[in-house]
Specification:
Radius of gyration of chain A: 29 Å
Number of strands of chain A: 31
Number of strands of chain B: 5
Oligomer: heterodimer
Strand content of chain A: 15-25%
CATH class of one domain in chain B: Alpha Beta
Structural class of chain A: alpha/beta
CATH architecture of the largest domain in chain A: 3-Layer(aba) Sandwich
Helix content of chain B: 10-25%
Distance between the termini of chain B: 74 Å
CATH class of the largest domain in chain A: Alpha Beta
Number of helices of chain A: 22
CATH architecture of one domain in chain B: 2-Layer Sandwich
Largest sheet of chain A: 7 strands, mixed
Number of domains of chain A: 5
Largest interface: A-B, 15 and 18 residues
Shape of chain A: globular
CATH topology of one domain in chain B: Alpha-Beta Plaits
Order of helices and strands of chain B: HEHEEHEEH
Strand order of the largest sheet of chain B: 2-3-5
Shape of chain B: elongated
Number of helices of chain B: 4
Chain lengths: ~725, ~150
């Protein structure tokens, strides 16, 4: 909570009840400890108090040594008043009730009473407070202030200036939380209005949050505009499956149709915020192109077919073909889906051609950090970034790729003074608060990483040639900046963050090793975070050609995505299965993808909507989306969270795990899993890192899965790697 | 004819017709529905009507307060935004779809009470019988008052 500065406690008396609260805690928070409530507009627990709306007025006094209470002559704003010893607070007196009425009367002078058409109506703090504390009638008969209605602040946020009560929450959010400082107040007094500085578009990667924190309907959701009223909506908890952070959200739906997303509080992950990718990125639930029934290709074109016909057709082409068949999937399926998929291919089809990496970064088993150096790839959590002395963000646009990690990193800088080093080839949001900005030439990642290791004095072999001057020559980063960054990294306890997009660069794999080695030697923690909702799960569950579930080496490795597509293009791969992915748009080499899809004999496309690859398919299978099925997802920080079903599946679409289980049952008759819960039980039995994960344990903030047991780190190979850079 | 028959059959008949004969003189209570119709009470609540302003614009702004107030949950409202080219109601918002399931409606009139613009009113048309269940879902076109010329 904001403004708690020490662990000392003080005694305050609130409405005659004496309680102990941390010294300096704001009275508006202390009152909550008694289950009481002070009406608020501008105060927000995650932002600094400003005392702009005066709604939280309380009467305050102090106990005197003789036992009497000396009250302050005027009421005080509870949101800016820190608790101190012998304080007496009254929240429920006649005078306070009168004051609240007065404040609300002032706020409503210019607030239009268009609640019936306002999107906030029904969940509006101004409505609620007026009903609870305000006057029942208005004495105001003059003209209200008039301003532009429905001004599009950005493609996502609509501004209605008439409704604004100038609380400053949105302005403070962009300054304190998201850090883009896009909004500010223009003019003064009654004509004060929030706007962007040069009246440009409100360009922020977290703009959706200001909609949720606006206490009136001034900032509304452009995508949700007039689509429903709050009482029309039903809501269920869920998680975001678009970003890799595992953002907790509420799915609001009406008559079985997805309507909007709101942030759900999880202190370990997203606090209460959402990224715009999350909040506005789930439109595919209502896509008109949703696949609703399985389709078989015939001579005349696609023909609707029953599931059993489709299964028979698939089995005829996949069963017993071994390494002549393969599957490429995207890592945004649930853990259960992915586990059943690899089980179907390994046990059912005896094929090891399984891969979840579409856009690059095809590290082999031996090249991965765990196996090469004995270091874990993901060592940090999101929440711990709040309290670290320093962080290095390397080769990633964190706000795009890891929005919640970005917000925590920024919170750490804003509240606790984390020193941030931004090492990216292009400007990113992290630059705005970075202590040192290292802008290197693209393609020199490993040399910069080695230079940083050298400057921070890490005891790694083969670093001699990477002194700051040599690094400046190689990477274009000034030597003094490298020295400065190195100084920051000398102190242990820093976090080094990068993402899988580093692995797709030419030197990325090596840079990753150097950074991990640096972190190990200098007492930092290193994380190379995934980019999809379940990348961590896919890796752990063995959706890789050369790794079995649990990170065990596959003695008989299969082909990775590129090799499979190359084989398919040459006609060597007889049958290919695409699960929830489209190589035509996501694979870096479109020509190869096209050739592969054209030349493969039998192509199964399993997707939730009609994609380009369907044109090449022999069989099209409709699958459900995460909110339409039960399942769990492993976020990039290795947190397993449940996505319980919210909506019903369209048409005959089936959950992916069910499709794979039903096929496996046709090959090997055995007791099938009856639900994802059974699959998760099997996972926790077979994959050591998932031990203890079950659906009963997944309520609340989710479960961090264990780190794999790797034995002693062995950095000997790093010297050889460095000498080759 | 015995005395018993006279007493038990003929006498009551004569007595009964006697009452009828006496009533013939007084005013009639029954009417010849459907040819004749009785005037209804002022506050009678039957079939809903979506009314218009004198300008011809719809009063309904699609706020869905009627649906919120409805204890039978029989109203479905879907709103959309007015444009200057296609203006249905004053202000920003109008009802794109407005449906009432008359089978569920209990004619309590809460919708009328909740309506901020006086758009939905319960009028006196009570002849709501129909043959198909689907026909009881009244759409906006059925509920909307015709434009007065």
């Amino acid at each position: 909570m904001a403004a708690v500065v020490s662990t000392d406690t003080v005694k305050v008396t609130i409405n005659g009840v004496e309680i102990e609260v941390p010294k300096g805690e704001l009275i508006v928070e202390s009152v909550k400890r008694l289950g009481l409530e002070i009406p608020i507009f501008c105060y927000h627990p995650r932002m600094k108090p400003v005392g702009m709306c005066r709604m939280c007025l309380v009467e305050v006094g102090f106990k005197q040594p003789d036992g009497s209470v000396r009250m302050m002559p005027k009421p005080q704003a509870g949101c800016t008043l820190p608790a101190s010893d012998n304080m007496v607070v009254l929240t429920d007196t006649e005078a306070i009730h009168r004051d609240r009425k007065g404040v609300l009367e002032f706020l409503l002078i210019n607030h239009p009473l268009d609640c019936p058409i306002c999107d906030r109506g029904g969940e509006c703090p101004l409505q609620n407070n007026t009903l609870s504390y305000g006057p029942s009638t208005s004495r105001f008969i003059e003209m209200k202030r008039h301003a532009h209605k429905a001004f599009p602040l950005s493609q996502y946020v609509t501004l209605d200036l008439e409704r604004c009560i100038q609380c400053g929450r949105c302005v403070r959010f962009t300054e304190e939380i998201s850090g883009d400082s896009q909004l500010a107040f223009r003019f003064r007094g009654a004509s004060m209005q929030p706007a962007t500085y040069q009246l440009t578009d409100f360009e922020s990667k977290f703009s959706g949050n200001v909609i949720e924190i606006c206490p009136v309907g001034a900032l509304t959701n452009a995508k949700y505009r007039f689509r429903a009223r709050p009482w029309d909506l039903e809501t269920k908890p869920g998680i975001c499956t678009v970003t890799p952070c595992g953002t907790n959200v509420w799915f609001d739906y009406r008559a079985g149709k997805f309507i909007r997303l709101n942030g759900r509080t999880n202190e370990e992950v997203n606090e209460e915020w959402t990224a715009d990718r999350t909040k506005f990125g789930h439109d595919f639930y209502n896509s008109p192109n949703r696949l609703k029934a399985p389709n078989l290709r015939t001579e005349t074109g696609f023909k609707g077919a029953g599931w059993s016909d489709v299964y028979a057709e698939i089995l005829a082409h996949f069963e017993g073909k071994g390494s002549e068949v393969g599957v490429i999937t995207e890592a945004n399926l649930s853990n259960e889906d992915l586990f059943m998929l690899q089980k179907l291919f390994r046990k059912g089809f005896a094929s090891q051609n399984i891969d979840h990496r579409l856009s690059g970064g095809w590290q082999s088993f031996e090249e991965r950090l765990e196996n090469k150096l004995g270091l874990n790839t993901v060592q940090t959590t999101i929440a711990e970034l709040e309290n670290v002395p320093a962080s290095l963000v390397f080769a990633t646009s964190l706000a795009d790729e890891q929005p919640m990690t970005f917000l925590r990193l920024r919170k750490g800088w804003f509240q606790n003074g984390t020193k941030v080093i931004s090492a990216t080839s292009h400007p990113t949001e992290v630059d705005q608060f970075a202590h040192v900005i290292l802008r290197y030439k693209p393609g020199t990642e490993a040399r910069l990483a080695a230079g940083l290791a050298h400057a921070s004095g890490a005891a790694l072999e083969g670093l001699e040639k990477f002194n700051p001057e040599a690094t400046e020559q190689a990477t274009g980063v000034p030597a003094n900046l490298i020295r400065e960054a190195g100084e920051i990294l000398r102190e242990a306890g820093a976090r080094i963050l990068t993402t899988h997009s580093l692995l797709t660069t030419s030197e990325g794999s090596v840079a990753c090793e150097i950074l991990a080695g640096l972190a190990h030697k200098a007492g930092h923690k290193f994380s190379c975070l995934g980019l999809k909702a379940n990348t961590a799960g896919a890796k752990e569950l063995g959706l890789l050609p050369d790794t079995l579930p649990g990170g065990i080496k596959n003695s008989n490795p299969g082909k990775d995505t590129r090799q499979m597509l190359e084989d398919a293009a040459r006609g060597k791969l007889k049958a290919l299965w695409l699960v929830n992915c489209d190589p035509l748009t996501d694979f870096p080499d479109r020509d190869l993808a096209e050739k592969a899809l054209e030349n493969v004999e039998f192509l199964v496309v399993q997707h939730h909507q009609a994609i380009e690859a369907c044109e090449y398919a022999s069989v099209v299978l409709p699958m459900t989306l995460p909110a339409e099925q039960d399942g769990t997802f492993t976020s990039s920080e290795r947190r397993v969270q449940r996505m319980a079903p919210v909506l019903s599946a369209p048409g005959e679409a089936k959950a992916s795990w069910r499709i794979f289980a039903e096929l496996l049952l046709r090959i090997q008759p055995s007791t099938p899993p009856f639900g994802p819960k059974d699959v998760m039980e099997e996972i926790s039995r077979e994959v050591p890192t998932f031990a203890g994960v079950n659906y009963g344990a997944l309520d609340g903030p989710g479960v961090l899965i264990a780190q794999p047991e790797l034995g002693e780190p062995n950095l000997n190979s790093l010297g050889g790697t460095l000498s080759k850079v | 004819m015995s005395f018993e028959v006279l007493r038990d059959v003929a006498k009551p008949i004569i007595a009964g017709f006697g009452i009828t004969a006496r009533r013939l003189a007084s005013e009639k209570v029954t009417i010849q529905y459907p040819e004749e119709r009785r005037e209804q009470f002022v506050r009678t609540r039957w079939r809903h009507v979506l009314t218009r302003y004198d300008s011809g614009l719809e009063r309904c702004i699609g706020c869905s307060l009627c649906a919120g107030a409805c204890p039978a949950r029989c109203i479905y409202v879907q709103a959309a935004e007015n444009t200057n080219e296609d203006r249905r109601s004053p202000g920003e918002r109008y009802a794109e779809r407005y449906e009432i399931n008359m089978l569920r409606c209990i004619f309590c009139g809460y919708c009328q009470e909740a309506c901020p613009t006086g758009a939905i009113v319960l009028r006196k048309d009570f002849e709501l019988a129909n043959y198909e269940r689907e026909d009881f879902i009244y759409t906006k076109e059925m509920l909307l008052e015709p434009i007065r010329r």
